Q: What sequence folds into this?
C-alpha cells in the first residue's frame, strides 16, 4: 500500500504541531509549513518548509505534488489582547486572507481535493452573544453576519471562499469553526496566549495567599476544547462526507471566574481573584454540537477540568524550566 501524504500549513503553531503528531502516528508522510518552527516541541514532520504563505511562489513550491490531505491552519492570530484592540486589524485581514487565497488556489491547480480549513467561533454575530447565559452559536445563526472583530470577518470570508471552490471547482473542502482550543505546547506568555493558558500561568506564578488579575467582571462565559479532541474532530471532518461549516467545540460553558477558580483549585494554592478592565470580546459563547452529532456521529466529551489539569501541569513545568535557565545564565 502506498503511504498517504498530508500537508499541514501552520505546522509550527499550536494546533498544527499536535496535528502533525497525530498524522505521523497514523503513518502519513507529512510536510509542515510555517514562518517558524514550533517553540515548544521538536516537529515530527518528515519535511518542514520555513517560509511565508502570503507569497504565491513559495506556496506553489510547497504544494508541488498531490497530497491526500491538506490542513490549512496558518493565520495571523492571537488572544483577546491581539484581536480586539483594533491595532492589528489590517494585518489580521490582509495576512490571513492572502494565505487562504494562495493555498486554496495552489491546491486546486494541483488537483488536490481534500482541504481542511479552520474557521473560528469568532465569526458568529455579536448580537447572539450578548446574554452570557444563553449565547446562540448554532451554525445557521451565522447570517445576517455581524462578527465583533475583523478576525471574525476574515474567517467568514475564507469559509465562503473554500465552499465556493467546492461549488465551482469540484473540490471537497471541509470547514470547521473551532471554539477556544487549549492544551500543552501552546503559547502561554507574551500577549498572544488565550484565557486558559493565561490563567494557568498566573496561578502557577502566584504566591500562596496572593491574587491573580482576571479581565472583565468575570461573568462573561466561554467553553474551551482540549486540543486532542480538536484534532480528533478535525481529521474526522476532513474524511467525512459533510463539508460544514460545523462547530468543533465543547458545550461545557463556564464563566471566566469559574475557569480561574478551577485552576486555583487544581493548584492547591490559596489565591484570590481581582477583576480588572481589559479587552473582552463577546459576553457569552458556547459551542452548539447538535450538527456535529448529527453529521459525524461524534462530539467531544472530555471534562474541562481534565484538560485544564494537563495544561496546568505543562505550563508549571515550562515556568520551572525557564527559571532554571535564568538561574544558570
Ligand atoms: P497558532 O498561531 O499557534 O498557529 C498559526 C500558525 O500560522 C503560526 O505558527 C504562524 O507562524 C503561522 N503563520 C502565520 N502567518 C503565516 C504565514 N504568512 N506563512 C506561514 N505561516 C504563517 O494558532 P493555532 O491556535 O494553532 O490556530 C490554528 C488555526 O485555528 C488558525 O487558523 C486559527 O485562526 C484557528 N482557530 C484557533 C482557535 C484556538 O482557540 N486556538 C480558535 C478558533 C480558530
A:
Amino acid at each position: 500500500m502506498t503511504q498517504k501524504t498530508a500537508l499541514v500549513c501552520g505546522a509550527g503553531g499550536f494546533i498544527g504541531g499536535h496535528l502533525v503528531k497525530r498524522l505521523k502516528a497514523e503513518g502519513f508522510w507529512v510536510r509542515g509549513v510555517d514562518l517558524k518552527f514550533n517553540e515548544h516541541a521538536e516537529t515530527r514532520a518528515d519535511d518542514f518548509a520555513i517560509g511565508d504563505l502570503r507569497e504565491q511562489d513559495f506556496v506553489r513550491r510547497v504544494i508541488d505534488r498531490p497530497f491526500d490531505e491538506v490542513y490549512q491552519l496558518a493565520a495571523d492570530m492571537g488572544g483577546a489582547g491581539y484581536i480586539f484592540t483594533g491595532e492589528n486589524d489590517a494585518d489580521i485581514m490582509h495576512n490571513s486572507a492572502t494565505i487562504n487565497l494562495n493555498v486554496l488556489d495552489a491546491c486546486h491547480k494541483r488537483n488536490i481535493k481534500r482541504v481542511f480549513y479552520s474557521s473560528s467561533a469568532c465569526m458568529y454575530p455579536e448580537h447572539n452573544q450578548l446574554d452570557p447565559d444563553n449565547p446562540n452559536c448554532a451554525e445557521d445563526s451565522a447570517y445576517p453576519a455581524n462578527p465583533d472583530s475583523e478576525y471574525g470577518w476574515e474567517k467568514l470570508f475564507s469559509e465562503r471562499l473554500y465552499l465556493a471552490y467546492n461549488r465551482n471547482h469540484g473540490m471537497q473542502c471541509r470547514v470547521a469553526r473551532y471554539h477556544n482550543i487549549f492544551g500543552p505546547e501552546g503559547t502561554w506568555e507574551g500577549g498572544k496566549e488565550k484565557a486558559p493558558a493565561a490563567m494557568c500561568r498566573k496561578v502557577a506564578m502566584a504566591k500562596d495567599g496572593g491574587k491573580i488579575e482576571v479581565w472583565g467582571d468575570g461573568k462573561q462565559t466561554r467553553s474551551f476544547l482540549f486540543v486532542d479532541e480538536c484534532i480528533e474532530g478535525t481529521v474526522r471532518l476532513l474524511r467525512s462526507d459533510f463539508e460544514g461549516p460545523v462547530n468543533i467545540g465543547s458545550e461545557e460553558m463556564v464563566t471566566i471566574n469559574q475557569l480561574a477558580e478551577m485552576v486555583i483549585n487544581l493548584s492547591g494554592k490559596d489565591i484570590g481573584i481581582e477583576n480588572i478592565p481589559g479587552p473582552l470580546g463577546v459576553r457569552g459563547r458556547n459551542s452548539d454540537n447538535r450538527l456535529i452529532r448529527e453529521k459525524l456521529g461524534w462530539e467531544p466529551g472530555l471534562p474541562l477540568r481534565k484538560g485544564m489539569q494537563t495544561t496546568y501541569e505543562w505550563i508549571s513545568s515550562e515556568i520551572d524550566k525557564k527559571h532554571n535557565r535564568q538561574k544558570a545564565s
Notes: The first strand starts at residue 5 and ends at 9. The chain has two domains: 5-181+224-248, 186-223+253-285+303-322.
